[in-house]
C-alpha cells in the first residue's frame, strides 16, 4: 500500500514513520523545503522521543521519502495545521486543509482513500471536503473513500500511543469506515472504533475540551484559594482521594495546539449553547495575567527586579511552544519597565541563555513555567549564584527545594499577600 501524508509536523511525521515502520511505502509531503531536506538527510526537525531512531530505521528500509509535491498514491492523509480564525469566536481556519485537498484531488483515482487527520470543526469532512471530491467527478463511498481519523496522542509518547491507543474511524459512509479500519489496522493495536465522520470530529474536540474545562476548574480554584488564604493544591490532593473525583492540576495557563485551540471550534459552531466551554476558555486564557500579578507581588515583597524564567515550552520535556502560556507571561513581563527578564529552556533554542547558572546569575526569582525533568531538582551550585533565593514554581514540579530560602506555588501564593498586609 502506498500512503502519501500531507504535512510533516508533530502528528504527520510520526504517522508517516509509523506506517513506514510497518512495511508500507510512504511519501511525506511538506511545503517547507528545509523540513524536506532535513528528513531526506536523516534528521527530524521536531523533538519527540525515539522519532530520530525510527526515521533512521525507515530510511534504511527505504520505506519513506520526503518531497514538496503530491503524487499518485493509494491513501492520502491530510495532517496539516488548523489554527484559529481571527474572528469573534476563534473558529477553525480550514485554509491549510482546503489547500491540501485541492492539491490531492488531481491525483485521485477510483479506489483511493482520503483521510483527514487534522483537527477540524464538526461537519467539515461532509460539508467541505466531500463536495470538493465530488466536484472532481467521484462518488464518495463508491469511487473514493473519505474518512476522518483524529489522533489522540500525548507529546513525548507519540510513537507508542499511535500504536496502542484506541482509534476513532469516522467514515462518511459505512464503506468509508471499513476502508479506514483496513488502513489503520496495519499498525493500531488498540480498538478501532467505528463512527460517522461528524461524530468523530466532535468527539476529538470534546476530548480536549473536557481537559480544558477541568483545568479551568483547577485554575479557578487557585484564584479562590489565593483570595481565601487556602492552599488550592492541598484541596485538590484531598478532593482527589474521593473515588469519583479527578480534578486536574492547575498551572500558568493552557497551551499547545489542542486544549488552547480546539474548544473554540465547538464554540464557533454553537456559541449560544457552549457557555461553559467559553467560560473555561476565559479562565485559562487569563491565567498568564494572574501569574504575572503574583510575580510582581513577589518582586515587591523582596524588593527585586530580575526574573529568571525556567521553561518556554507549553509542557514538560518537549520543544513545542505553540500557544505556550510561558511565552505570554515572558512577553507581559518584558513589557514592564524596571524589570529584567531572562529565559532558559533546555529543549527550546529560542531561549535567552544556555545554562541554569547563566539564567540564575544575580536573579531575584526563579520562575518555573514548564515542568521539564531538568527543573525537578535544581542543583545547589546553580541556585547559589542568585541574588535572592526565591522560587515560584507554577507547575508544582520541584521535588527538592533545600537550596531556596522561599518557595511559592499556586497553592501557597496567598502567603505573599499576607506578608504584605502584615508589614
TrEMBL record:
<dbReference type="Pfam" id="PF03720">
    <property type="entry name" value="UDPG_MGDP_dh_C"/>
</dbReference>
<feature type="domain" description="UDP-glucose/GDP-mannose dehydrogenase C-terminal">
    <location>
        <begin position="308"/>
        <end position="400"/>
    </location>
</feature>
<dbReference type="InterPro" id="IPR014027">
    <property type="entry name" value="UDP-Glc/GDP-Man_DH_C"/>
</dbReference>
<dbReference type="InterPro" id="IPR036291">
    <property type="entry name" value="NAD(P)-bd_dom_sf"/>
</dbReference>
<dbReference type="InterPro" id="IPR036220">
    <property type="entry name" value="UDP-Glc/GDP-Man_DH_C_sf"/>
</dbReference>
<keyword id="KW-0520">NAD</keyword>
<protein>
    <submittedName>
        <fullName>Nucleotide sugar dehydrogenase</fullName>
    </submittedName>
</protein>
<dbReference type="InterPro" id="IPR028359">
    <property type="entry name" value="UDP_ManNAc/GlcNAc_DH"/>
</dbReference>
<dbReference type="InterPro" id="IPR008927">
    <property type="entry name" value="6-PGluconate_DH-like_C_sf"/>
</dbReference>
<dbReference type="InterPro" id="IPR017476">
    <property type="entry name" value="UDP-Glc/GDP-Man"/>
</dbReference>
<dbReference type="InterPro" id="IPR014026">
    <property type="entry name" value="UDP-Glc/GDP-Man_DH_dimer"/>
</dbReference>
<dbReference type="GO" id="GO:0016616">
    <property type="term" value="F:oxidoreductase activity, acting on the CH-OH group of donors, NAD or NADP as acceptor"/>
</dbReference>
<dbReference type="Pfam" id="PF03721">
    <property type="entry name" value="UDPG_MGDP_dh_N"/>
</dbReference>
<dbReference type="Pfam" id="PF00984">
    <property type="entry name" value="UDPG_MGDP_dh"/>
</dbReference>
<dbReference type="GO" id="GO:0000271">
    <property type="term" value="P:polysaccharide biosynthetic process"/>
</dbReference>
<keyword id="KW-0560">Oxidoreductase</keyword>
<comment type="similarity">
    <text>Belongs to the UDP-glucose/GDP-mannose dehydrogenase family.</text>
</comment>
<dbReference type="InterPro" id="IPR001732">
    <property type="entry name" value="UDP-Glc/GDP-Man_DH_N"/>
</dbReference>
<dbReference type="GO" id="GO:0016628">
    <property type="term" value="F:oxidoreductase activity, acting on the CH-CH group of donors, NAD or NADP as acceptor"/>
</dbReference>
<dbReference type="GO" id="GO:0051287">
    <property type="term" value="F:NAD binding"/>
</dbReference>
Amino acid at each position: 500500500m502506498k500512503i502519501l501524508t500531507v504535512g510533516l509536523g508533530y502528528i504527520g511525521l510520526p504517522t508517516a514513520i509509523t506506517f513506514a515502520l510497518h512495511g508500507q511505502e510512504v511519501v511525506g509531503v511538506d511545503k517547507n523545503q528545509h523540513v524536506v531536506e532535513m528528513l531526506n538527510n536523516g534528521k527530524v526537525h521536531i523533538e519527540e522521543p525515539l522519532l530520530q531512531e525510527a526515521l533512521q530505521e525507515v530510511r534504511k528500509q527505504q520505506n519513506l521519502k520526503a518531497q514538496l509535491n503530491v503524487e499518485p498514491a493509494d491513501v492520502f492523509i491530510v495532517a496539516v495545521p488548523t489554527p484559529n480564525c481571527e474572528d469573534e469566536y476563534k473558529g477553525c481556519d480550514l485554509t491549510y486543509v482546503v489547500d491540501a485537498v485541492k492539491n490531492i484531488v488531481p491525483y485521485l483515482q477510483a479506489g483511493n482513500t482520503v483521510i483527514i487527520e487534522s483537527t477540524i470543526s464538526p461537519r467539515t469532512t461532509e460539508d467541505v471536503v466531500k463536495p470538493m471530491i465530488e466536484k472532481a467527478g467521484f462518488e464518495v463511498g463508491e469511487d473514493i473513500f473519505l474518512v476522518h481519523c483524529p489522533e489522540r496522542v500525548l507529546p513525548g509518547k507519540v510513537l507508542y500511543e499511535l500504536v496502542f491507543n484506541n482509534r476513532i474511524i469516522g467514515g462518511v459512509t459505512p464503506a468509508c469506515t471499513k476502508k479506514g479500519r483496513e488502513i489503520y489496522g496495519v499498525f493500531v493495536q488498540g480498538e478501532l472504533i467505528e463512527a460517522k465522520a461528524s461524530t468523530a470530529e466532535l468527539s476529538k474536540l470534546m476530548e480536549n475540551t473536557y481537559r480544558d474545562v477541568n483545568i479551568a476548574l483547577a485554575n479557578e480554584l487557585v484564584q479562590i484559594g489565593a483570595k481565601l488564604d487556602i492552599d488550592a493544591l492541598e484541596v485538590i490532593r484531598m478532593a482527589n482521594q474521593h473515588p469519583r473525583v479527578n480534578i486536574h492540576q492547575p498551572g500558568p495557563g493552557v497551551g499547545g495546539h489542542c486544549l488552547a485551540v480546539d474548544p473554540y471550534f465547538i464554540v464557533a459552531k454553537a456559541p449560544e449553547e457552549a457557555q461553559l466551554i467559553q467560560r473555561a476558555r476565559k479562565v485559562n486564557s487569563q491565567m498568564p495575567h494572574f501569574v504575572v500579578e503574583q510575580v510582581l507581588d513577589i518582586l515587591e515583597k523582596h524588593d527585586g527586579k530580575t526574573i529568571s524564567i525556567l521553561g518556554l515550552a507549553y509542557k514538560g520535556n518537549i520543544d513545542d511552544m505553540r500557544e505556550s502560556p510561558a511565552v505570554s507571561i515572558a512577553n507581559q513581563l518584558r513589557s514592564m519597565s524596571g524589570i529584567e527578564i531572562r529565559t532558559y529552556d533546555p529543549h527550546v533554542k529560542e531561549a535567552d541563555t544556555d545554562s541554569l547558572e547563566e539564567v540564575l546569575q544575580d536573579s531575584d526569582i526563579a520562575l518555573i513555567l514548564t515542568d521539564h525533568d531538568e527543573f525537578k531538582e535544581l542543583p545547589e551550585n546553580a541556585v547559589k549564584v542568585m541574588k535572592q533565593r526565591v522560587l515560584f514554581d507554577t507547575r508544582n514540579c520541584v521535588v527538592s527545594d533545600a537550596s531556596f530560602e522561599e518557595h511559592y506555588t499556586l497553592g501557597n501564593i496567598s502567603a505573599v499577600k499576607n506578608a504584605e498586609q502584615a508589614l
